[in-house]
Amino acid sequence: MHTHQPIFFVFAGNNGSGKSTFRNLIIDKIGVEINIDPDAIARRMDSEIPESKIS
Questions:
Q1: Which of 16, 27, 40, 43 has the lowest tally of Cβ within 10 angstroms?
Q2: What are the C-alpha distances in Å from 39 to residues 2, 3, 4, 6?
Q3: Confidence of residue 52 (pLDDT cuts 50, 70, 90)
């Protein structure tokens, strides 16, 4: 049986506040196994205008 407790990190803030930069700086340092990057998801959905909403 493993003894590790699941940990969930959420980085929130205004556009351009450094959330993605901060996440990228610490992701390897703390050994994050799963990373959900909403910026990358948005780029895959619409590479020309990633901030657009798809209805």
A1: 16
A2: 32, 32, 29, 24
A3: low
Contact 50, 42 (CB under 8 A): yes
Taking the C-alpha atoms of residue 9 and residue 46, their distance in angstroms, rounded to an integer, is 26
Contacts of 26 (CB under 8 A, 6+ apart): 32
HEC states along the chain?
CCCCCCCCCCCCCCCCCCHHHHHHHHCCCCCCCCCCCHHHHHHHHCCCCCCCCCC
- pLDDT tens digits for 15-51? 889 888 888 888 878 877 777 887 788 788 876 665 6
- C-beta separation of 12 from 19 below 8 A: yes
